[in-house]
Amino acid sequence: MLDALLRNLLVQHVHCLNRKGNAIDAVNFNLSLASFRPNLIGVVNLINFTHNATQSPHIFFISSTSSTMGHHAETGLTAEELITTIISAPNGYANSKYLAEHLLAHAAKQCPLHVSFACVGQIAGPAQSRVDFLAEVLADLALSKHKAANDSVNVFHPVNLHPLAWEAIRPIHIQKDIEMAGASGEILHDEELQALVARNPAVRPLGFFEEMMSQATRVNVLDTQLTAQRSEKLQAVEAIKPEWIEKWVGEWVP
C-alpha cells in the first residue's frame, strides 16, 4: 500500500508512524545501546525503502537533543549541522540517536537522499497544547522544500527561542512545592519514596538530571537560527511564564 502511494504522482505527503511495540518505552535512559539495535535496523530499512522509491521522498527523522551531549565547542554553541564527536553521550538512548543521525547523513551523501532530522528535547508544560504546538513546528520543518547543499542533511533544533535560566525558574518551583506539601512536609522512607516514583513517572529521570547538573564542563547551547527561519510557528512561541510553571507542577506533583 505504501509503495502504491509513493508511485502516485498526486500524493504529495505520506506520514509514516511506527507503532510496533511501545515507542514511548524506548525512551528509557537506563537501556544499553545494544537495546536499540531494532530501532537502528528500522532506520536502515527506511533508508533502503526511500532509496528504492520512485518519488524520492523526504526522510524527516525525530532525533533528540541528547545526541549532542558528547559535543563541546569552544564557542559554546552547537551548530545546526551533523555533529561528530569521539566522546560518547551519557546513555544508550542518546548514543542510538547519534548513530541514527550518522546513518542518515551517510545515506544522504551516498544515494543521495533528501534527509532532515530534528533534535527534540523534553516536551514539558501544562496541558496537551505544548505537545500540539511542537507538532505544528515539526510539520513546518518537515514540509519545507529547502534541501541542504552538498548532499548533506538538514538539522533542526526546535527549542524555545527565549530560554530562561534555572535560577529564574527555581524560586517559582520551590514555592509551589512548599504550598502543595504544606508547612509540615513529610520525610519519606525508602519504601514510600519508591511508591511515589511508581505513581509519578516525572521523578524517574531525576538521577539523569542530577548528573547533568554536576558536570564541571558547561553544556553547549543549541543554535536555532536556521530552525527559526524555517518555522513561523516556532517564532510565535513565547518564553516560559511563571503561571505555566505553577500549573505544570500542580499537575504532576501528587
TrEMBL record:
One Pfam match, given by its short name, reads NAD_binding_4
- Annotated Thioester reductase (TE) domain residues: 27-124
Gene3D superfamilies attached to this UniProt entry: NAD(P)-binding Rossmann-like Domain
Origin organism is: Aspergillus bertholletiae
Q: What is this protein called?
A: Thioester reductase (TE) domain-containing protein
In terms of domain of life, where is this protein from? Eukaryota
Family matches, as InterPro entries: FAR_NAD-bd, NAD(P)-bd_dom_sf
